[in-house]
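JOB MANIFEST
job_type = single_chain_structure
chain_count = 1
residues = 195
[input]
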Amino acid sequence: MSSPGLRERKKQKTRWSIQEHALRLFREQGYEDTTVDQIAAAAEVSPSTFFRYFKTKEDVVLQDEWDPIFVRHLAEAPAELSLVAAMRYALREALADFDDAERTKMLQRANLMLRVPAVRMRLLDNMVTTLDLIAEAAATRTGEPAGSARLRAYAGACCGALLGAMSTWLASDRSADPIQVMDQALAELESGFGS
């Protein structure tokens, strides 16, 4: 796979710079009290440039580089693994290279996704895309159509387990490793919840 060209790298750098400034402002001022104009000014871009990269303020929280990395690891999971075991493998592999700053950013975004009503609603809208990506990766593994009821149920169950795990972790004292909490949720799904 070839690396992105200079133009694409510049676009990615601008996108993630805007997001970094937005997340900093959300921490400092709160989500609701931060405007797109403030984010654009902090990132030294115009508001119209902000909207070229993010359709809405909520999207600056939701968009990330996670999905392609995760889907690649799901596709690369050992063939003998069950679908849920492959999901656990992909989760561990994708997050293994995250440094502390990336983990902190991921957790801040997760907190905003689950606690800010406008972002939570947009998250639900974006869930369909995530379900499609997971079902397509599973289809590659199984040879089944990505739109099959089984693969759609699998994708939905995994997303639901991960969402529930993050919600539980964010409501806790946060002393546990969030990746272990997510892995445990998938382990419960894999075991049929001890049934």
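[summary]
The chain has ten helices and no strands.
Residues 68 and 133 are 9 Å apart (CA to CA).
exit_status = 0
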